[in-house]
Amino acid sequence: MPRPERTAAILVAAGRGLRAGSGGPKQYRSIGGKTVIFRAMEPFCRHPDVFAVQPVLNPDDTAMFNDAVSALRHEPPANGGATRQASVHAGLEALASQKPDVVLIHDAARPFVTAALISRAIDAAGRTGAAVPAIPVTDTIKLVGETGNVEATPERARLRIAQTPQAFRFDAILDAHRRAAREGRSDFTDDAALAEWAGLTVATFEGDPANMKLTTPEDFVREEARLAAQLGDIRTGTGYDVHAFGDGDHLMICGVRVPHTKGFLAHSDGDVGLHALVDAILGALADGDIGSHFPPSDPQWKGAASDRFLKYAVDRVTARGGRIANLEVTLICERPKIGPLRDTMRARIADITGLNISRIAVKATTSERLGFTGREEGIAATASATIRLPWDAKGWSD
């Protein structure tokens, strides 16, 4: 069978994940700073050989899903069923009008799927029509009876652990699901088992040991530790900014519009808090300063909102495979009073950066009426940022 030209993917995300403990459906929990479902879905959305990604959800999760994957392209979600099998069938029917040649079926609880594994799945489907990723079993397996006694020891060399994405010729797996639905069969735990029942020959291809399924709370703890260990290059940067007062009726401080008797004299919106944070992040990256990326001589930044600058700095960290661990900003002024707005500012920075608010600190102090801030001629801000990057021999992540 030649390599198919049209490959679609189904992301099965309708389960409740009860064995993963409290905290809501496991696919919407965070791991390594990103939601499980985003990690599971992004490689398919970015893959050049996948033309459509079809999510299958519990309709109660729509708002969480939209928040988690707003940056990714995908088909309108299909509503899942009471079982995984029913959910996959719903995804297949939703794709039927687009007539894919091949479909990849992946569990949202496997957030560490790679582009290389997806490519192997597509190639395997092109060769065989039905194939699953598999990895060898390293432990001895025992078949145990109802009494708890060992009944048999299967030959380990022939055993494999099946993973997803499982890959099939689209028409064949859709027909198999329709036949199972007609015959009242709803007990298949994966699509390969259903395909075998329908008479298809299912091949295997090389899986990925890192493509783990998150099932229990211990799985989350283990994988968080593994991801953290990969980000061993811990860096701290500092930033400083100051702006004088001019005419106006408000100040932008840490992304919040604060009513005041004056405004900032600045090329952009003059947000000293966000500007200091941008410099702190860029400093931790050893990546210049805010002026080198957004020169005040450039007219396109005239009056620009500083949340754009902060989002840009965060994206620079993400592009290197890193994470921001903590952001802190200290505002130095007599007025306006920052204390009542502290949590509002923290929440706004969290919204811009995508960080949990617990990783963001906003503080304020005065200069005891000394200097330009004491004379209420302007505001100054200092900031620090702690980031984690992947480590290599050069200390660089790219």
Low-confidence stretches: none
Distance between the termini: 39 Å
% residues in beta strands? 25-35%
Rg, nearest Å:
26 Å
Q: Given the helix and strand composition, which structural class is it?
A: alpha/beta
The beta-strand count equals 19
What does the overall shape look like? elongated
Largest sheet: 8 strands, mixed
Tell me the helix content: 25-40%
Q: How large is the count of helical segments?
A: 12
Mean pLDDT: 92
Family: In the N-terminal section; belongs to the IspD/TarI cytidylyltransferase family. IspD subfamily.
GO biological process, one term: terpenoid biosynthetic process
EC number: 2.7.7.60, 4.6.1.12
Catalytic activity: 4-CDP-2-C-methyl-D-erythritol 2-phosphate = 2-C-methyl-D-erythritol 2,4-cyclic diphosphate + CMP; 2-C-methyl-D-erythritol 4-phosphate + CTP + H(+) = 4-CDP-2-C-methyl-D-erythritol + diphosphate
